[in-house]
Amino acid sequence: MTEAGPPAASLVRVGRLGRPHGVDGEQYLDGCSLTPLELHAVKRFTWRGATGETRALVLHTARPAAARLLVRFDGVATREAAAELVNGELWVERSALPDPGPGTAYTFQLIGLRVETTEGRVLGTLEAVVNAGPQPVYMVQGERELMVPGSPGVVKRVDLAAGVMVVDLPPGLEDL
Questions:
Q1: Given 7, 103, 113, 152, which residue has the most CB atoms within 10 angstroms?
Q2: Long-range pairs of 166-171 with CB within 8 A, sequence gap ≥ 24
Q3: Helix or strand holding residue 81 (H, E)
Q4: Which residues pair with 62 in a beta bridge?
Q5: With contact defined as beta carbons under 8 Å apart, do 129 and 107 qualify?
Q6: Of 81, 95, 91, 93, which Cα lies nearest the Cα of 54?
Q7: What class is the 107-175 domain?
Q8: With contact defined as beta carbons under 8 Å apart, do 90 and 16 qualify?
Q9: Residue 51 clears pLDDT 60, i.e. is over it
Q10: pTM for the full predicted model
Q11: CATH 2.40.30.60 describes domain 8-96
C-alpha cells in the first residue's frame, strides 16, 4: 500500500525496522530515542522502504528488549508480514511528537548545532549522537572530530533557537 505523505520537511525519522522476533509480527526497532510510551502517544507512522515506497502504519504494541525496542503494527500479524518491513525507516509528523519536557530535546533537534566552549571558542558542528551507556556521546566535527560526553557537567547550555550548544570540556579531552 503506497500513500502520498506529507512534505518530507514535516517528517522526523524515528528509527529503522529490524528483523522479526517470534511469529506474531513483532520486530526490532533500532536507533529510536523514543520510549514505548512515547511511541504509543504518537501511534501513527509512515514507513519508507529502500526504494522509496511508503506505507501508513498504526502501532499495536511497543516494548523494551535490552537496548532496543520491539514493535508490532496493526495488520502485521505474522513473521512474514514483519519481514516485508525490514530495513525500512519509520517516520512521524514532527507535530505528533510529544513535548520532550523542560531542559530536554530530541536527538534530531541537536544534530547540526554549533558547539562552542564556555569561552566562546567554536569546536565545530554536532554531527551525531551516540547512545553509550547512561549519557550520550556527541560527535562534533570541526578542525578534527571530538567525542564530547553528554553529561550535565560538560553540557552547560543548549539554545535550539540560536542553534548552539555550549560545553565545558574536561581537561585533556582535546588531546585524545
A1: 113
A2: 166/115, 166/116, 166/117, 166/118, 167/115, 167/116, 167/117, 167/118, 167/123, 168/117, 168/118, 169/117
A3: helix 79-83
A4: 71
A5: yes
A6: 91
A7: mainly beta
A8: yes
A9: yes
A10: 0.67
A11: yes
